[in-house]
Design brief:
By secondary structure, the chain is of the alpha/beta class. The chain has helices spanning 11-23, 36-46, 62-67, 93-99, 111-114, and strands at 2-6, 27-31, 51-53, 75-78, 84-86. Strands 3-2-1-4-5 form a five-stranded mixed sheet, covered by helices on one side. It is globular, with a radius of gyration of 15 Å.
Length: 116
Amino acid sequence: MVIYGWSTIGPGSLEFGRMIQARRFAALGVCLDEDTTTAGKTEHQLGLGGQQIYDPKGLQGTVATRLKISAAGQIYFVDREGVIRDVRGGTDFESKLSAFAFQTPVLNPTPDQLRP
């Protein structure tokens, strides 16, 4: 899974959220905006990927502080056991996707693709 921090004033973080949706990764988006109403509208308008977490305390919210997310655009890689494996996920992102065996799920898979 990928965890990413985003904000309506961070265009790079919004673009990353759109890429997550396009590639359908398992992801958790942590909104860093205190205005959660506007942020929610932005999420829906842009189609940000993953499950979203909103906290009206923004950067000072529980999830952001526990994960030590201090800015929009921070990306973490989490393994299947829930262990954070990389806190600098934005650096050499595509190589890390391969290293962590992330795969884009197939839409409408054929019966052959469903077999293990």
